[in-house]
Every structure is written in C-alpha cells, then in structure tokens.
Q: What sequence folds into this?
C-alpha cells in the first residue's frame, strides 16, 4: 500500500468521519512495514472495532427481544371465536356498550367484577349471531402493554448509554493508540 493512499484517506476523514476511519483502520492493518506506532494503532483499531461490533449487535438483539415482548399478547385477551369486538365501559356496576342501540349487561356473567370503577374500559366480544361471548378489562390489558413499552424505552436508553460510555472508555483506554494515530495524521 502506498503512503499516498493513506494520505488520501486521511484527507477524506476530515470531510466525512464514519466509514473513512474504518477504511483507514483496515488499510493500516494490511500495510506492510509498519512503524511501531502504526503497529500499536492497528492493534488498538481492531480491538475497538470488534468490541464496537459486539456491543452494537448485542444492543440490536436486546431491542429486538424487547420489541417482541412489548408486542406479544398479554395473556388476558379472549382466545375464543368471535366476529366482532366493541369497547364498552363500566357504569353503575354494569357494562355499557353501543351496537346500533345502547345496551347494558351484567359483568359477572362474563367473569368480571361488578365492583370495577365507573368508566373502566371493557372490550366486549360478539359471535356471528351478535350475542356477547366474552368481556375483558381493556384498561388492565392496556396497563400491561404500557408497562412493557416503558420497559422497552428503558432498554433503549440503557443501550444508548452503554454505547456512549463504551465510546468514551475506548478512546481513553484500549483504543487510545488508534485515536491518537488518527489525530496525528489528520494534519497531513
């Protein structure tokens, strides 16, 4: 590899950091007759690159798992057959829903307590004959989904913090020779 190629890459780094720095690192790894400073920088680059890839893939895996968990069923949904569902609400110990007309049904017939607070949202399920087949507490299901979304957001923030902390740690510890070498050639 000619030194001119390294100079051209170094000048390109000033225009666009990202991929040019990675390209420079791999070209430095392949360069024959490296100086001792370049040898140390190349080793620091490969160590930084490997850890960066591992942490990014780990973060992606964590976020993929958390997204799947947040979107999965809560276990409280109605699993039987139905053709339609509507949202009703509790009113004076009964479920109030509208299906062309206003209806009131007893929640205890469908496994819910009549002591639920007024305005609690209830999902009402109907069969093909427009008969009510099941009711579930929609507020409870939505609460579980909200908790899962909060957990996913916390995981996202945690992944970002870990990646940012890694960037700072890498620049000051095992990756320091690489970053010093890149900074030294930027002035070329």
A:
């Amino acid at each position: 590899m000619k030194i001119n190629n390294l100079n051209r890459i170094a000048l390109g780094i000033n225009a666009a950091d990202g991929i040019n720095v990675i390209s420079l690192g791999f070209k430095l790894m392949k360069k024959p007759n490296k100086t001792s400073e370049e040898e140390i920088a190349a080793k620091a680059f490969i160590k930084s690159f490997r850890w960066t890839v591992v942490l990014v893939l780990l973060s992606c895996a964590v976020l993929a798992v958390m997204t799947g968990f947040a979107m999965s069923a809560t276990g409280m949904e109605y699993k039987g057959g139905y053709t339609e569902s509507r949202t009703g609400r509790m009113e004076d110990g009964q479920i109030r829903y509208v299906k062309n007309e206003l209806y009131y049904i007893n929640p205890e017939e469908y496994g819910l307590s009549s002591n639920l607070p007024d305005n609690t949202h209830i999902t009402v399920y109907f069969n093909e004959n427009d008969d009510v087949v099941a009711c579930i507490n929609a507020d409870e299901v939505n609460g579980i989904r909200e908790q899962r979304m909060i957990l996913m957001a916390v995981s996202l923030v945690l992944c970002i913090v870990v990646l940012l902390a890694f960037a700072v740690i890498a620049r000051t510890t095992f990756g320091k020779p690489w970053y010093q070498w890149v900074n030294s050639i930027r002035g070329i």
About this structure: Residues 44 and 175 are 5 Å apart (CA to CA).
